[in-house]
Inverse folding.
C-alpha cells in the first residue's frame, strides 16, 4: 500500500510540474556530470534558448533528481512555452530514467531557472538535458 501511495504521489507531482511553469533561485546544489543541448534556427547564430548552467540534486525519499537549469531567451520575443527533457544514465551508459520540466511566459532577453524533475531514478551517474518544444 505504501508503495502504491508513493507511485501515486510521484505521478501527481510529475503531472503538476508539467502543467505549472515555475522558476527557482540558484542555490548551492550537488553537481553531477552532465551534457546539454540548445535549440537554434541556424547553426551559425546564437540559439533561441540556451542552457547557461545546470546542477542537480538528489532526493533519496522518492529516488528523484532535480536538475536546476539556468536558461536564457536570446530572442527579441516572448516565448509562451518551452519544455526540457532530462535523460539519466548509469555507469555503463544505460538509461535509468527520464525527467521533464517546463517554463511559460519567458520574456525576451531574460534568464530563468527551470527545474527538470526525474522520479524513481536509481544508479544515476550522469545526465543530459535537452530543450524540446519551444513555442513562439
Amino acid at each position: 500500500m505504501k508503495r502504491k501511495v508513493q507511485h501515486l504521489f510521484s505521478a501527481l507531482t510529475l503531472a503538476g510540474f508539467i502543467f505549472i511553469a515555475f522558476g527557482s533561485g540558484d542555490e548551492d546544489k550537488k553537481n553531477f556530470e552532465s551534457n546539454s543541448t540548445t535549440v537554434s534556427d541556424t547553426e551559425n547564430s546564437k540559439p533561441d534558448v540556451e542552457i547557461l548552467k545546470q546542477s542537480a540534486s538528489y532526493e533519496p525519499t522518492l529516488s528523484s533528481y532535480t536538475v536546476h537549469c539556468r536558461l536564457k531567451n536570446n530572442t527579441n520575443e516572448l516565448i509562451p512555452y518551452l519544455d526540457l527533457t532530462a535523460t539519466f544514465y548509469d555507469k555503463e551508459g544505460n538509461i535509468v530514467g527520464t525527467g521533464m520540466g517546463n517554463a511559460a511566459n519567458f520574456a525576451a532577453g531574460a534568464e530563468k531557472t527551470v527545474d527538470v524533475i526525474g522520479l524513481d531514478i536509481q544508479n544515476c551517474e550522469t545526465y543530459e538535458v535537452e530543450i524540446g518544444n519551444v513555442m513562439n
Residues 34 and 127 are 5 Å apart (CA to CA). Confidence is low (pLDDT under 50) at residues 4-31. The first strand starts at residue 33 and ends at 36. Residues 2-19 form the longest helix (18 residues).
